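tokens incoming
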């Protein structure tokens, strides 16, 4: 069993930056691919970025060059540094762990409860 707790959400103006963090607890955390998904009001949950234990990361096209995912295996934390934020980035952001890398929310093994990011224009 893996528990995930997100922090760092809030209100920011367009063009600003925000850093999300996810604290993970449980066993064998290093074997999981860690990632972030988001769900905008009225929308479906979508992939944002993920990273494996070696630090290999992938990103959704719309956040490439603006968001950076990182992972500290010793501290069991995953972070998402978000820059040049846009109003369309407004969403609840969820930390996610999965054994097999996937961008499909149905394939995720564990979810955090989410943290709200609001970007004002």
């Amino acid at each position: 069993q893996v528990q995930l707790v997100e922090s760092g959400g809030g209100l920011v103006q367009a063009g600003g930056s925000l850093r999300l963090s996810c604290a993970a607890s449980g066993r064998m955390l290093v074997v999981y691919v860690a990632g972030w998904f988001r769900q905008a009001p009225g929308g479906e949950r979508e992939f944002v970025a993920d990273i494996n234990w070696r630090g290999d990361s992938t990103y959704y096209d719309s956040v490439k060059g603006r968001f950076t995912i990182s992972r500290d295996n010793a501290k069991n934390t995953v972070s998402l540094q978000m820059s040049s934020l846009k109003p369309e980035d407004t969403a609840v952001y969820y930390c996610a762990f999965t054994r097999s890398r996937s961008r499909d929310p149905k394939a995720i093994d564990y979810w955090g409860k989410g943290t709200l990011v609001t970007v004002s224009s």
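note: The CA atoms of residues 40 and 91 lie 4 Å apart.
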